[in-house]
From TrEMBL:
<dbReference type="InterPro" id="IPR001045">
    <property type="entry name" value="Spermi_synthase"/>
</dbReference>
<dbReference type="InterPro" id="IPR029063">
    <property type="entry name" value="SAM-dependent_MTases_sf"/>
</dbReference>
<dbReference type="InterPro" id="IPR030373">
    <property type="entry name" value="PABS_CS"/>
</dbReference>
<dbReference type="InterPro" id="IPR035246">
    <property type="entry name" value="Spermidine_synt_N"/>
</dbReference>
<keyword id="KW-0620">Polyamine biosynthesis</keyword>
<dbReference type="GO" id="GO:0004766">
    <property type="term" value="F:spermidine synthase activity"/>
</dbReference>
<feature type="binding site">
    <location>
        <position position="86"/>
    </location>
    <ligand>
        <name>spermidine</name>
    </ligand>
</feature>
<feature type="binding site">
    <location>
        <position position="106"/>
    </location>
    <ligand>
        <name>S-methyl-5'-thioadenosine</name>
    </ligand>
</feature>
<feature type="active site" description="Proton acceptor">
    <location>
        <position position="156"/>
    </location>
</feature>
<feature type="binding site">
    <location>
        <position position="62"/>
    </location>
    <ligand>
        <name>spermidine</name>
    </ligand>
</feature>
<dbReference type="InterPro" id="IPR037163">
    <property type="entry name" value="Spermidine_synt_N_sf"/>
</dbReference>
<dbReference type="GO" id="GO:0008295">
    <property type="term" value="P:spermidine biosynthetic process"/>
</dbReference>
<keyword id="KW-0808">Transferase</keyword>
<comment type="function">
    <text>Catalyzes the irreversible transfer of a propylamine group from the amino donor S-adenosylmethioninamine (decarboxy-AdoMet) to putrescine (1,4-diaminobutane) to yield spermidine.</text>
</comment>
<feature type="binding site">
    <location>
        <position position="163"/>
    </location>
    <ligand>
        <name>S-methyl-5'-thioadenosine</name>
    </ligand>
</feature>
<dbReference type="Pfam" id="PF01564">
    <property type="entry name" value="Spermine_synth"/>
</dbReference>
<comment type="subunit">
    <text>Homodimer or homotetramer.</text>
</comment>
């Protein structure tokens, strides 16, 4: 590697991180994996030259994709995570005492193994929790074939290229809807609206074919360049999204863990979308 890692996700805009020590670089059966150190963000994991997570700002992404649906649901016992090989998502989900089982389906065993070795702070021991069931397989195939039902499904995917492309299709969303309990919630990674507007529009139209209530919520994650990141929200009733602030506050007050970004007010406020994002919902 040179002294700079240049992310080339977009043809007209690059992002550069100065590289310190290169910890790992290799080709898996699915993608190129790089882990390196950066003076500001700590250890950085990239797949196919696109940054996936960093020690410095991962807490925003992982807290919002877990605590928003789990606190909105209020009693999620069975959670499915598709993707999330770095372990940050299971770390946050397992902080909720009502969760009895987490099934994590990750396509790339090497991402899991190298994250355990070089990014242990992100999973923080979550891979050894007895409530975790780790399955190494294609997430789309799993959701199509399983007969289990889940209270919350978290789609912690890459962008819709390469292995992650199939996780943005109508067929996949329909299978997710089938696997939800009556009050279940699906949340998805939906890119940065300012730079990936078509992704929001496509997800909006595809999700609405399988779910009654579809919306998006947002959070700023520094290394996901271009402004707010959007997360898709899908459910088969509107109760969870229209939950009162006092209910969220009570649920959050009854847990023993602390957060760095998520609060009940942030929870509600994240669903207020900027006008340019609203214009993409067509």
């Amino acid at each position: 590697m040179t002294n700079w890692f240049i992310e080339t996700l977009h043809p007209w805009w690059n992002q550069g991180l100065r590289t310190g020590k290169l910890l790992y670089r290799g080709e898996t059966n699915h993608q190129e994996l790089i882990i390196f150190e950066n003076a500001k963000f700590g250890r950085v994991l990239a797949l196919d030259n696109v940054i996936q997570t960093t020690e410095g700002d991962e807490f925003i992404y992982h807290e919002m994709m877990t605590h928003v649906p789990l606190n909105a649901h209020g009693n999620a016992k069975r959670v499915l995570i598709i993707g999330g090989g770095d372990g940050g998502m299971i770390r946050e989900v397992l902080k909720h005492p009502e969760v009895e089982q987490v099934t994590m389906v990750e396509i790339d065993r090497v991402v899991v193994d190298m994250s355990k070795v070089y990014l242990p702070s992100i999973s923080s021991g979550a891979f050894t929790d007895s409530r975790l069931e780790l399955i190494i397989t294609n997430g789309a195939s799993y959701i199509t074939e399983t007969r289990r039902r889940f209270d919350v499904i978290i789609i912690d995917s890459t962008d819709p290229v390469g292995p992650g492309e199939v996780l943005f299709t109508e067929e996949f969303y329909n299978a997710c809807s089938r696997c939800l309990t009556d009050d279940g919630i699906v949340v998805t990674q939906n890119g940065v609206p300012y730079l990936q507007g078509s992704l929001i529009t496509d997800s909006w139209n595809r999700l609405r074919k399988s779910f009654i209530d579809v919306w998006f919520f947002v959070a700023p994650i520094p290394t996901y360049q271009g402004g707010f990141m959007a997360f898709g929200w899908a459910a088969n009733n509107k109760r969870a999204r229209n939950i009162k602030l006092s209910t969220i506050e009570n649920r959050f007050a009854n847990v023993s863990f602390k957060t760095q970004y998520y609060t009940p007010l942030i929870h509600l406020g994240s669903f207020a979308l900027p006008k340019f994002v609203l214009d993409l919902l067509q």
